[in-house]
Write the structure tokens for this entry.
Amino acid sequence: MLPVIENLLVLQDRDRRLRRIQAELDAVPAQRLHLQTKAAKAAAEFDTVKKRVQQIESDRKKLELEVDTLKDRIGKVRSQQNDTRSNDQYKAYQHQIQTTEGEISQLEDQQLSLMELAETGAKEVAAASRINAEVKAETDRHLADLATREARLNEEIDEAADARDEAASRVDDATLSRYERLVKTKGDNVIVGVGGGVCGGCHVKLTTQATVSARGQAEIVPCPNCGRILYFTSDMG
């Protein structure tokens, strides 16, 4: 195999590694956002449940104050009723008391319903709190692992870039330029074998001349169809 082909194969391998590491590194922000979104969702759900239960308790306390106000009103009306000497006025006061007691009964029924809702809500708050804590702990752990992985990938990409530069330095400028043009249009598979007389890149059957030239290993041979650089080894048959 031509030394330049060997050098190009090393370069191609290092380019592939560099791209793989870069792809992993590029995926980190999305992975971090996914974790943060998951934690934020759990926290929001917990906050929603908690606020709903707090509102139920607030509404119950308002009803309690209304009941207390109505009871005070009944007390005042009873006092006025005891002081009156008019039978009609006495009956009017009694009707007012009965009406107010009916309002109190309705409010107390509403209070009871709210107390039942609050009891159920308290269980929901406890469950949501537990889930939120578990999700947060899991997210924090994964975020820490992700940060460690990101730091490692940054180190690896620097090492891979240095290794790539070292491999590129062993290829002459004209061939390197040709290789890099191919990479831009064909991706990271541009130095390909000719196993079975077929181009390892476009998989089109090669002409006899291209196959013979690639096997001769005397010069750089392009695929007549796709332009990739061909190479041959004895195990290709």
Observations:
- Helices lie at 3-83, 87-168, 173-186, 208-216.
- The longest strand covers residues 191-193.
- The radius of gyration is 41 Å.
